[in-house]
Amino acid sequence: MRYLLISNKGLLETDALSLLGASTKRFDNDKIGQFGSGNKYALSYFLRNNISVRIFSGINEVNIGIKHKVFRNQDFNVITINGNETSMTTDFGYEWKLWEAIRELYSNAVDEGLTHFGTINAETIQGIEDNTRIYIECTSEVDDLMLNIDDYLALNLKPIFECDGNKIYKKRNPNSCIYYRGIRCLDTNLKSLFDYDFHDIVINESRTVKYSWSVGEHMWDLLFKCKDINIISTILSNIHNREYIENNIDSSMVSIPTIYNKQTWINAVGNNLICPTNLSGYVEDDEKPVTYFLPNRLYDTLIKFLGEIHKPRALKLTSDGTIYKKVHADGLMRADLNKALDFFKECNSPIEYAIEVVSFDNDLIMGKAENDTILLSEKVFNRGVHRVASVLLEEQLHLKTGEHDLTRAFQNEIFDFVINYMKKANAIAL
Questions:
Q1: Which stretches of 263-410 are assigned E, i.e. beta strand?
Q2: Of 103, 232, 267, 299, which has the highest C-beta tally within 10 A?
Q3: In-domain check, residue 153
Q4: Is residue 273 predicted with pLDDT exceeding 90?
Q5: Taking the chain, what is the end-to-end CA distance rounded to the nearest angstrom?
């Protein structure tokens, strides 16, 4: 008969199969199990699905059974260990899947010193001294899982890059495989360019990633440390596709780590250009074949040290790193702009700086003050002449005073302007 054998050093204490929440590994960062519940979920799964499981602690077999019990007029199967009732029924963890049950037993074995994980053929089974052995019947479902075990446990995968215990693997199938210390910890329909194995990502009791945004932070921390130019070149060439999990660098929840190996990224970009994906329409035809289209936040990070030479001709960059492109102001825009300018002239407070109508990569930005020029977003014209005038006034004050947004000094300048205008308009001295 064929079995999946999971074996580790040391003897199993039977309380580990029944005492919920009892874990001696909770504060041991070198251990995978932290919650004291995994093997209980696993045992319930196998009994509920009529998959034979036998456990040996040394040469002694742990007798696992079921006792029928009625609770509030409902039938339950209570799990027994060596004839003693536990507080668990076979419905415990009723949503669990086979791979999760096997994952738990494997994780516990790794924590204790794994000695075997794989299928065997055996007429009889038995324990051995100073070892814990778990034999799971090889049903067709178990066989299928073992044929695809690397989708769940990174047993046979060799990293193509490794740093600080974190690993990057070559893709095996389109969907993302994210592992925690070699154990799958994220289910997602997103595709990925590579598979990733993180050593310190936080997991919950279901052994899945506790904070989904932390995947992006760990991923990009590892990619920014990567020294493999082929990996980085693949990222640059394909990341524009939003179905890839790597594209989540643009999530507002993801903090952008430091690029530790700038030279690798510089070499991977080579003589190519880089452009934010949302501004791809502004890249001229002759530049498109040599342009990498990137998520905005990756572009913002790279352009700071790659420099202007790597930008498409049509794209401009303000001194604070804001991306923009000059656009043609149509007749309606020019009419509204002229109305706003005439208003300031009539108020004896004319706009004194050059004005350019632009498209910002950030749609929330309505204007910028840059090199004695007011950059006016094409979006502001959708909000009427009043809003156009408001933005012109704000940016003129920035240029005149040199003060920045969100500062008390700039607030004072606005207040002074308003008070002075009121004084002039009413010929009142203060």
A1: 273-276, 291-294, 315-317, 323-326, 354-360, 367-370, 373-377
A2: 299
A3: no
A4: yes
A5: 100
